User: Fold this.
Amino acid sequence: MNETPAIPTTPPTGRPRNRAAIVIVACLAVLLPLTAWGFYLYYPSGIGPAQPISFSHRVHAGDKRISCLFCHEGALDTPRAGVPPLQTCMLCHERVIITHPEIVKLRTHWENQQPVEWVRVNDVPDFVFFNHSLHVRKGVDCGRCHGDVAAMDRVDMPWALNMGFCVQCHRDNNVSHDCLICHR
Amino acid sequence: MMDMSRRVLMKLIGGGSAAAAAGLMLKKWGKLIPYVIPPEETKPGVWSVYATTCRECPAGCGMHVRHRDGRATKAEGNPDHPINHGGLCARGQSAVQGLYDPDRLRQPLARVGGRTKDFSPQSWSTALETIGQALAATHGRVAVMSDLQTSTLADVMQGFSRALGGRMILYEPFNYESLRQANKKVFLLPHVPRHDLAGCTMILSLGADFLETWIDPVRFTQEFAQMHSPGKDGPGRMVYVGPRLSMTAANADDFIQVRPGEEALIGLAMADTIVRRGWCKSQTPAPPDTFEATKVAARVGVSAERIVALAEAFAKAPGAVALGGPPAGRSAQGDATALAAALLNAVTRESARGSEYVYPHALTTTATEAQTDKFLADLTKNDVLIIHNANPVYSRPGAALAIRKAGLIVYLGTMMDETAALADWILPVDSPLEAWGDYGPYLRDDDLAKPTTTEDGRGRRPFTTDLLSLQQPTMTRLHDTRNAGDVFLALAEAAGRHVSPPDSELDSAEGGDFEAWLHRRCDSRSMGEDFFRPFKELWPELLTAGWKNTSIIELPWGWPDPDMSALMPPEVPILPPPGASQADLCIYPSVMLFDGRGANRSWLQEAPDPMASMAWGSWIDIHPRQAEALGVTDGDVIELRNDAGVTVEAPARVTMDIVNGAVALATGQGHTALGANAAGRGANAFLLVGGSQRVTIRKTGRNSPPAKAAATQDQQEREILRWTALPAATSEPAAEEHFSLPLPEGYRKGKDIYQPRPYKQHRWAMVIDLQRCTGCGACAVACYAENNVQTVGEARLRKGAEMSWLKVVPYRQAGEGGRVGFLPMMCQHCDAAPCEPVCPVYASVHSEEGLNAQVYNRCIGTRYCANNCPYKVRRFNWLNHEWARPLEMQLNPDVSVRPRGVMEKCTFCIQRIREVQWRAKREKRKVRDGEVAPACVQSCPARAFTFGDLLDEGSMVSQLTRHDARRYHVLEHLNTKPGVAYLKRIRLPEIT
Assistant:
């Protein structure tokens, strides 16, 4: 067996040689949680998938206080809330902020009569048959399932819309949770 | 793996968890593609309904096509339509499968460089240009052959053939020529008449299968069910005389089985008796005594007393009608049968309210045998033959040879059928569900007084219709197809000709596309008050209703008393009884496949024949005595050879349904083209049409029985289908009768194991009136369409892996002279359901509204429930089903598609219940009685089904279940307390 080398001692000055690194790490250790916290404040339920046009629900539903039903008009009368047709966007953006690069994209779609292929965010499995109109008419707020959309730029599902979520609410409100209510 | 270090293991675990966690986050995002500008009537996720007209047969029923998110998914009867009043037969419902048929023609095709070459895809512009040039070059030699069309498309084709100086016929394989000839003799009008059965108390059918395919089957079924059910006047009577126990015959109160052709003798003997005994007011000289009852009785083996009794019942009925006349071909026997029916209607015309000869059926305009023969014989190489939608190569033996003589054959249609395969050019046209058009099944007399099928194509008026039934597109086109009318107009334009409406005094404006023609025509048919209203107002009304009546005058019509001595045929040639190896041939249109045009649709192939319970094939009915003599057993393939040496082979079905000495074969199968489901399947009965009646039978030595959908038609003494004599039918149920309601009040201590189920809001239940059910099978096909039920195909059906949720079983009454009743059997939604307690995973559970729910995503496929179900209505998915593209577009988005390993069964169409409940909730009201109509209930032409809430004492279903004396539960003794109650079939005493 070879002799083990002596353990190097710290320099007599008492200052670590990699001080810069330590400072950076320390700053990061403070800044990262701060950023994360800030991020969480601004995006409480995370960021959804990127959309072909970076439409901001925060601007429309939050800042401008446009009703959900203005665009998702099916929610009141039909099972599906519906994604608004391009026509609905153009009600305003025919005249409003027409030079914004994202709205230019929108207008190009309109001029070419090309539908926008949005990325789907909220979804339930195919064997679940949910009806928006009944819930909305009973006074269930959109946010009860969809979260605070007015605080989301890119919409995300705030929580999984799974069976437990549905049944819990039905139970809490003394609504039937017969299998055939949702499944068929 | 042995030398994996701890470090590597940790890496793998860590990496794996990270990947799993990441995988959870990597959700498969779908796409949402909204409209740019949404169409007004389409909302995502909401049903819209288009009123249109069924074109699956010449009956022309009104349809409501349900449309969702850009796709037509289901065809239903239009409840307000005067032809079908809401019912729709299996064939009509299969129209959506025709639309999405994977074997549909998708673009123009041509054989470039001669008839030996294969088809190659072409553009529409090339097609129109090439054919247009040929048309211009061969001016005067265009020949148009189409299936039955009336109204605008008939106008266009008429105008087209006139502009090009050509000729045109409307070809249908079933043209009812015997009937037309007979009516010409007796009523001086060569019409296919309009019969109204609802006002009758007695119907005599001389071999006419009017509940299956004969002229107007859906309307007849509805009217027959009405006259045949115990109303105020008690049930009417139907007498069927014929060689074959068809589905119609099975519904008769008296079925008199005779040898082929003898039905004519009995009909004539009845007419003779009525005149001879003075049971009619008609002043007619006594006929010669050829058909005197005793003389006929000696020939046919039916007693003279019975013939006289039948004649008396017929003559003295407050309303009676005789139906008869074979749909296809002409024969002395067929002519005599039709004549007998016409004479019976004529001599009892005061009571024979059931016939209307002034407004005849559109079938009257189809070409006669002679006209078709001449049309085909006149074809030469100078001709441009245009065939639209007709398939003469399949349905008319010898037509192929004549058609090949034409210089250029252009086929307009939707499928690559036998005729299309022969063509030089194939121009794909829209499916009837994609096209504008109109159809009028009933015509006005003034137009028919003139010849309607043009021999020379000049100076004839078009066919105008009394009833205007509109056809509108129910979705956008699937393929590169065009409207047939537009193709004709474009071809004329390409040939440099102008097509003008034949009725030009009514139409000031001319030209435009087919839709413009249609608008003008609908405008010109505005009568009465509508005449003064602008078309813009009328059009939306017509689009919503789907039809309007355009007649304003009731034409009085009388006919002279029939001169019996002149009208009676001198003799009806009946062949002597055949030897053991010979038989008389009966060819009949198949209930499901009709003339074979829908043979590529899996629903129609899989829907079992009402009498034979067989599917996916052909079979020859043969009497047991003859089979024994030939050494033939069930499933042995036998060959029929007629005098001309034409042979047809099919497996034998040994049955008493056919009279001894005759064999029966259905049309519709035996295609050599048309598509994957149809080609090479079964035998083509049309090959024998027009040949000799007597055929030689030869045993081939092979055995291949067709697939069967029901193992037995024997009740095994279980009284599944019950009969009752008439008197009990109108009173309250007997007190001692054992009948447990599927409600808490049906609970009996000591008898029931489980506690009563409390129902708060609804207890859905159904009542099926077996007296009304005719066995047509429309409900079963409706169920396939509504509930995404897979069709399993021949091989799996043979193994018993059928998936049909609803089955109409023909049960035979043992020892009752072979009475047959039809019992629609589906999940009975029992209150004490045997399937529920045996499920280990609670996949089979009872719902709050009384339904027996099957939760697919819980089911693990133990099949305990199916084993424990006494009604055998549960179906197991042995395999995942692949819908051949684009058939998957037909799937109902409101119903889960079940994967392999899952049990399924009737849900009482829960999606429809929910739809109505949701609507009621939105409108803040209760669900009305009769508002919920499951698919089977909606489609039934006979209105045999009643659906509703058993908790609501006033509901129809509640009234029938609680108070109708005919009610019973199938297998009541098991105490399952089914939610489906049946009403017993009524057995009238036979006329003897």
